[in-house]
Amino acid sequence: MDRSTQLVLQNRDLAFAKKGIGLGLLTGTAWGLDGVLMGMALGLAPFTNNISIFAAPLVGACLHDGFAALWLLICNIINGKWRDYARTLKTRPARMIILAAILGGPIGMSGNLLGIYFAGASYTAAITAAYPAIGAVLGAIFLKETISRRVWAGITLAVIGAFVVGFVPPDGLAYPHFYLGIGLAAIAAIGWAVEGVMSTFGMDLVDSDIAIGLREAASFFVYIFAILPLFGGVAYQILSESFTTPSGWYFVVIGLVGATSFLFWYRSMNMTGVGRAMGLSVTSAIWSVFFGWLLNNLRITPNLIIGVVIISLGTILTIGNPKDLLNLKSR
């Protein structure tokens, strides 16, 4: 291969890596907004009827993933990829992605939504931000991804900063089950980390847009047919009543925000690797604070400011030099 051809291929790969980094940052922005909007929607009727403290947020998770799956289907139809759904389902990687969907959706998303319900959006975002560190370790073990010391330092700083953001419980009695919410958020972090590794493995042979479309669809069907029936008629009562109130229809918009975040996340993992993509998505903790302040009167405390600064430094280290990705791939 001559020198000019090598330069063309290198520039193409560099542009690809930079795009993956940009999508990773956009993932954080959209996910931060998604969490704040979910917290606001779950604070409205019929999710506040006190019939069941667990059923309401899980119905919200079902609506979230259902509308996200619909938006992703529309996106894939527009892009001419809708036929790939049936074709991909027949393959082994698709089964891997569906299993990842269960870990990231009914387990990860449920833990996240229950965390938001019990502890608030900003604090849940802080705890779930630990998932990049878990994902990076799993990616190094199972996917043989090579992560530089600088990127490891960035991921570690981002996780520490996110923990600082959520270290102090909120004032007052707004969240009487605060620590239960924190525990459920930790479960979400583990579920998302495992999902990222399994999905990235499956995306070696499956288009990332189809992979996330299948992920959200599988998650929705598990909620409808396996999770909500555990609560009997209560869950379906909340589900049906949600469409008679504005809060239920808010999920149409929230599902679009969530679909955007998921779409960018899967593309970013496919382009830059699990560890780096997850490290960039931790910026959701920053955006959760910003959107919480902008839309929901979140009080800015010193630990929030310190945590945001640490996360920002970690993000800069995680991004680093995109050319590093090319060097790692060539080894």
How would you characterize this protein structure?
There is one protein chain. With 331 residues, the chain is mostly helical. It has one domain. The protein has 15 helices and no strands. The chain has helices at residues 3-41, 55-78, 84-89, 92-119, 121-128, 131-142, 149-165, 178-202, 208-227, 233-242, 246-272, 274-281, 284-296, 302-319, 323-329. Helix 1 (3-41) runs parallel beside helix 13, helix 2 packs across helix 11 (246-272) and helix 5 packs across helix 8 (178-202). The chain is globular, with a radius of gyration of 19 Å. It starts with a helix and ends with a helix.
Tag the structure with descriptive keywords.
single chain; mainly alpha; 15 helices; 0% strand; disordered C terminus
Largest sheet: none
The total beta strand count reads 0
Helix content: over 70%
- Return the domain count: 1
Distance between the ends:
18 Å
Principal-axis shape equals globular
Strand content: under 5%
Secondary-structure element order, N to C? HHHHHHHHHHHHHHH
Compute the number of helices: 15
Structural class: mainly alpha
CA-atom Rg in angstroms: 19 Å
